[in-house]
Write a structure and sequence with these properties.
Blueprint (H helix, E strand, L loop, with lengths): L33 E12 L2 H9 L7 H14 L1 H4 L8 E11 L3 E12 L4 H19 L7 E11 L6 E2 L24
Antiparallel strand pairs: 1-3, 1-4, 2-3, 4-5
Length: 189
């Protein structure tokens, strides 16, 4: 009979529940302030003709990607107001980029940098999601069959849990994205 050589990993606890199972905001006051970065993505699938309209700037509501970028940035800044148990954070930088995936997809990628006691994952996920929703809103007049998803965390760095990256790897990075360590000062612009 084979015996495991490594001890079982510690059981993970849901930190947003107290001992009685009631929702609580996690106390982060004793945690050290560290540099943190999170990157999330969302994919909007649409008719190829809709993607062409976006690329050509011919959507009647205006410049879809410019509006979606601003919406994503604004959403990241308001995550603590949208998600009930999220801490309000001071963000150092929010970037929202887009990548056309022919013939019928638009990938949104949001990256959040901050220095704080808790992470940036929810802010990056919120930015990517709201940017995708904005694309849907601006294009629904020509394509109500659009679909959003998956929405997912691609990577995070910093904090007590350190770094994490999606095992199957993130999708291709939008142009202009740095390949260096995301917490390196030179890559933070």
């Amino acid at each position: 009979m084979n015996q495991p050589t490594d001890p079982a990993p510690p059981e993970k606890q849901l930190t947003h529940l107290d001992a009685q199972g009631q929702a609580q905001m996690v106390h982060v006051g004793e945690k050290p302030i560290t540099r943190r970065m999170a990157r999330a993505s969302a994919v909007v699938q649409m008719q190829p003709e809709t993607l062409q309209l976006i690329q050509q700037g011919r959507v009647s509501k205006g410049e879809v990607l410019a509006v979606a970028r601003v919406a994503g940035i604004m959403a990241a800044k308001r995550t603590g107001q949208l998600i009930p148990l999220c801490h309000p954070l001071v963000l150092d930088q929010v970037e929202v980029h887009f990548q056309v995936q022919e013939p019928d997809r638009l990938r949104v990628e949001a990256t959040v940098h901050l220095q704080g006691r808790t992470g940036a994952e929810m802010e990056a996920l919120t930015a990517a999601t709201v940017a995708a929703l904005t694309i849907y809103d601006m294009c629904k007049g020509v394509d109500r069959r659009m679909r959003i998803g998956p929405v997912q965390l691609e990577e995070k760095h910093g904090g007590r849990s350190g770094s994490w990256q999606r095992e199957n790897g993130p999708g291709p990075a939008p142009q202009g994205e740095e390949a260096e360590d995301p917490l390196d000062e030179a890559s933070r612009k």
